[in-house]
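Q: Start with the shorter request: fold the first protein.
A: Done. Sequence, then structure:
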Amino acid sequence: MQDAVMDLLLYGEMTQEEVLWRMGGIIQDWKSGEATKQQLVHRVYRVVKQLLDLGTTYGFDENLWQDYLTFYLITNENSFSLTCERTKPQSGSINALVKADLEVFRQLYHYDFSALEQALGITCLTEITHYHAIGKREQVYHKTVSSRVRRLSRALAAAKNAEEMFDLLTQYYQEEGVGIFGLYRAFHVEEGPEGVQFLPVSNAGQNRLSDLVGYESQKQQLRENTEAFLAGRTANNVLLYGDSGTGKSSSVKALMNEYGDQGMRLIEIYKHQFRLLSPLIAKLKKRNYRFIIYMDDLSFEADEVEYKFLKAVMEGGVETKPDNILLYATSNRRHLIKETWNDRNDMEFQNEIHRSDTMEEKLSLAARFGILIGYTSPNRKEFYDIVETLASRHPEIQLSKEELLAEANRWELRHGGVSGRTAQQFINALAGKAEKK
């Protein structure tokens, strides 16, 4: 196995902690006699634990070895896989090199561990190739990833030759992509030893725009701009502003469920990370996805200067923002930056025009969002409509309309007034009580 791993070209770059590398080293040392039986057993157990941890995390089942190999293939970012993400592979010499690698993987998919197990007196490798997970697969956070990997894994294992594996894998790259962007739709960002890193969000929820009651014109504006962006047409950065609890954040988050299968990815970044925007965009601009960089609850105090990083990215920098990236933000402030009367100290009066450089500087950030969508608190009737609609989604709530709205009135008086968030919290409380009975 180690010789086969060493023969890999495009898929051969891996760390010594990789399961495939470790397993190859074990078999090599077993055949050469360069390690004791006890040492080899210990190393096999470490590999099996890695496979079990991976299987538990992603809900793999039946054959953890084959699922691991599939996971490795679809997350390996190399010159071929990244090219396939952008365009259909053309005939060329690189295809022959890839097929040579895949012939190695075809053998690895069906590797017989029985001789090694017999020599070491263990059975754990056979057990992980006939594995039955404990618990319900529905409880796994990474359900979508699990189903994709297992489905492709079975197809690759059944392939008769490298040619079939090539067709299956390239089709996956074209439809889903490669690496974590091919597996997930939403991400956080952190700064690591190798620069900007993307942390996938596995439990981002399944809400869609239709689940948000009301605000139809606002949702339509958001849809139209996002669909233009995904279609490669001209689109704008968007600022959703207005009262708390009105659904601004929920609207943006729902987009990944509406359009994730069309290549949209949501990258959430926090205010203290704005200095990472330039390296972040540099990593995203060459990928074949449409990225929305999302900033939730965006606002700045008078003495904060992080907004200058954002301004430089949106407009005015030496390098223009790539066509595959938009910025969406939510805020309770329409102008984002807190204004004070001191901002007017440099007010100029000329030809009946009043101008303040400080105020212009602060207002210019919001102006760089091409579309501003206002979300205001609902009036009493709209609040009742939201409550009734949400209640209709919970058949366990058995209250008359009059009882429901009376309870809603009492709830909102104690919980922050009328808003979509208050209505949702009220219905959650009612449903919880009903389910308990």
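Q: Next, the second protein, separately.
A: Sequence, then structure:
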Amino acid sequence: MIVIGGSSSRDLAKELAMLLECKCILASSTRFPDGECYTRIEGESLHDDVVIVQNTYPDPNIIEMLLIQDAAKRMGAKSITLVIPYFGYARQDKIFKPGEPESAKVMARHLGIACDRVITIDIHKEDVLKNFKCKAKDLKASGAIAEYFMDRGIDIVLAPDAGAAARAKEVGVKMGLPYDHLEKVRLSGTEVRIAPAKVDCTDKNILIVDDIIATGGTILAATQQLKEAGAHSVYVACTHGVFTGDSIQRLTGSQIDGLLSCNTLESKVSNISVAKTVADELRKGKKGRLFRKN
């Protein structure tokens, strides 16, 4: 097996190859003056099962992924697995107005043309995977998050809303801790309280888990109200730290006691690795003859 790392996921690709004890090639990618992408895989041929690790966010990374796929195929890859840590456009999975495209479906259809399998991590909607013309599976980062916080004194795991309650349950169960979700209670026409639906957070160390944090506005408001309600500490962990604008600075400079994200998107707070989760799945695929024999 050979792991090829795209420009968005070099560290994850290297760690994955180390765990799998296989060769890692970092694709060389640059931009021409007009913005077009140039990419190259070093070597004369591959002739092995190839795993390409690359995000499809932001948009230029989609083009790079397509070009790396084509290069790997031309170099004789026996099979191609795409590991897409953060699948861009997954949140654009529905049409709300006439004239809109099915963006998630378009991306899946094109990315799946030249590969044998796709692996995503905490994709926003698993239904998107049905649009790939090859085998596709979504892995959960809950195990990696639970392991990271296992011995850090957490008392309760919370989701920021009811829609993410299943994620808090996954992490809470793995940690052997109670779990709940936050809900908004309107106190008046201008005042809203954010509080756990069931559990009491007084003097407790709280872990809020979510799939994506972009601006962090909801997390900031929730942290403030949890602290006002008597929470001892509030830690925040997400799978995908999109962190638009200056959100990392605002979040780390707030009442949050710790901000962590997985390394699906690399940043200064992406200290939770999903490499073992992906490596375990690839090993299962190898045993199940997903990959063609040499």
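Q: Describe the second briefly.
A: The chain has a mean pLDDT of 91. The first helix runs from residue 10 to 20.
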